[in-house]
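Inputs:
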Amino acid sequence: MTSLTSRVATAANINEDDGPPALFKAKLNNVRPLVNMLRAVGFRTRVLCTISNTGLVFTVDEAQAMVAQSFFRSSLFSSFFFDASAAATDDDHPEYASEEGDGDDGVATQITLPLDKLIECLTLFYGPGSGGNSGSAHGISTSTLLGPVNDLRGATTAELEYKGPGNDFELMLEENGIISACRLATFEPEPALDLEFSRHPVVQQLIMRSDWLRDAFNELDPTSDAVSISISATEPYFRIATIGDNGSTEMTYARDERIVDAYFCNEEMENRYKLSLVLRCRSALAMSDKSKVRVNQRGFLCLQFMIPTDTDVSFVNYIFAPLVSADDEPA
Amino acid sequence: MRFRTVVSNSNLFLRVVQSIDKLSKSAILKLTEDKLHIVVITDVDSGLQLWTDVLNNALFAEYRIDSVHNNEIYLEFSIDNLQRALKSAQGALHITLKLTKKQQLPVLSLIIKNQSSTGRELTLTQDVPVRVLTPLQMENIREPMVPDGHVHIMMPPMNSIRSVADRMKTMGDRVAVGANNCGEMRIRVANDLVDITTYFKGLENLNDDPTQSEALSGRRPNDLRPDTKRFFTAVVDMKNFIRFLQSYHVAPKNVICCIIENHALVFYVYIGSTGFGAGSGMINDNCGSLTYFIPIRQV
């Protein structure tokens, strides 16, 4: 079974031994899980991609107040090669959730890619009008997601390759004997926004089923500028509220075993966040089974979504900086 | 001038008109003694052109045409109007089509006879306003002359191309379509951010110009076809390519692509008597064709 790259090379009359060896090369039997993980952060046109032995991390940020990261582990690929010795050592890692852990020596290579184009390429064989980037800047609805996350129908296989700085990011896709060779421009990685979530103690945490949180978000008044989130040791234990032109909405939930899996609250707090930024996470939320809500001592909010991938779970993190009003005491 | 006929295959007639629906608002109908021609020109210099012809006896019966110019009549009409009229004629007992005048203006009148549930005969008339063109005006509308094609190849299944093209259309305003004589086709689009080339293999090449009859029987000797792996490519406006791909409601089985490098892309769709796309390889058994001309991008 010849590799896709060599078949394309034959088709295109290129000698694939030319040029530097690959810094990163990986194969996927089905692009769908990767497409879903990209769509989970798909509301920006550029994405920072961090490649290491652990896998790929896709990071986007917005308004200096929100960072979203999607983790795609190397074990999700059918083959994964990363030449750590050739990669430039990079001290500026984006922040990893503690659940991920590095497990390696922290060597990574970073590139900025056109995210919308990457998703368009991966969904080349999805069918007219049904693919593309559903995580547009104008907001997404669950209905634009293509079926269950583990749906492997009509599988497109892919080979990803990156030879290092100055080279394009290459994607070779195949479905039903049709091969597409895509080259994406790469850009100097822009330093990732670091909201330093893990550097401050977590004071509130709860894990809940995502369908509950989805319903809650659907109820929020989208014309409101801010959303407030409060967790308390007494009733109501968890509260999400908006106040907008159309009035106010409020969802409160009791510590119900069916909804809340794990919960602690060391300090009662109410924090407000920009609603339009918080709603960016709906794509990831829609794909996930469970969501973990954490707030640290500085009032920063971290939403972590657990998305079933293959037979395992993948994570997408969203971190939000709180809105500070004029009459708040400095932290 | 006089024109009157019975429409015996209104379904085929409708499907031909539906295929051209997305291309333009209006088209030209050329009625002759033996064939019906439809011409759609989106832009005389740089646009896609579609030339369709269908044998009269595949669509009509009791056909009568009479004019001082070789018994030919030229009419300009709105595609949407004719389409809607034909839609309402589907399944009718009897359909007559004739050229007539209503309120001093020329129309193509479709007289549709149906039977109600009680057995009474119902007659519905749909009038499609037309503009009659003079022979001189028709003279100026000519099928583009193109040199012999460098390569003729059967297109891959239209569904695969449509999916790929749908993504590619956002990536650039021009697309390069190439093929060789080894059954391979490639389509490429590129911009500052992304460059995509899609390869199709295992396609059937046709060795001769398909507009000549018995096209498949002739095989050119090898010395006239050097370097069969060499790709011939035409770069056309993405808009025109997409227009061509979107112009079917019925996905035909067989579309032939002819590439004339540095000149044009020409696509031939054969209309079989029961529908679109004759059986595999058999283009003799057809009653008409749709020929799409897409000129190469000028700059």
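Chain A touches chain B at residues 8, 11-12, 114, 117, 120-121, 123-129, 131-132, 168, 176-185 (CB under 8 Å). Flag for discussion at group meeting.
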